[in-house]
Amino acid sequence: MRILLDECLDRRLARDFSGLEVVTVPQMGWAGMKNGKLMALAETKFDVFITVDRNLSFQQNLPKFNIAVLVVRCRSNRLEDLQPFAPKIIEILPNLKKGEAVFID
Predict the structure, then answer these.
(1) Number of domains the chain is built from
(2) For the range 77-81, what are the long-range contacts, defined as Cβ-Cβ under 8 Å and sequence gap of 24 or more?
(3) How many CB atoms lie within 10 A of CB 19?
């Protein structure tokens, strides 16, 4: 399973997903890209897109994209606020469906 972390997430979060292939938006050279174009590129190389952008599911027609979106609802996008969500993210990854957004908090 290939996972893409949004640029608004701390890149060090990838360390919490050992055994999974995790890449960040900046590592792909896609930083600053608009969400629609980002999703179109992401769906060609990744299975899951993880973000804290709560508006993404309202701004984009997610069913048209062949990628699952996981939105983490946490206090901030700081690493110490995101890390407690890592076990839950790993647990639900196998159940995510492409074209859908799942929110965890």
Answers:
(1) 1
(2) 77/8, 77/9, 77/10, 77/52, 78/10, 79/10, 79/12, 79/13
(3) 7
Amino acid at 84: P
What digits encode the pLDDT tens for the residues 40-52? Answer: 999 999 999 999 9
Main-chain phi, psi angles of 64, to 5 degrees: -80, -10
pLDDT band for position 24 (50/70/90)?
Answer: very high
CATH number of the domain enclosing 67: 3.40.50
Domain that holds residue 60: 2-104
**pLDDT tens-digit map of 62-76:** 778 899 999 999 999
Question: CB of 42 within 8 A of CB of 60?
Answer: no
Q: Between 57 and 34, whose confidence is greater?
A: 34
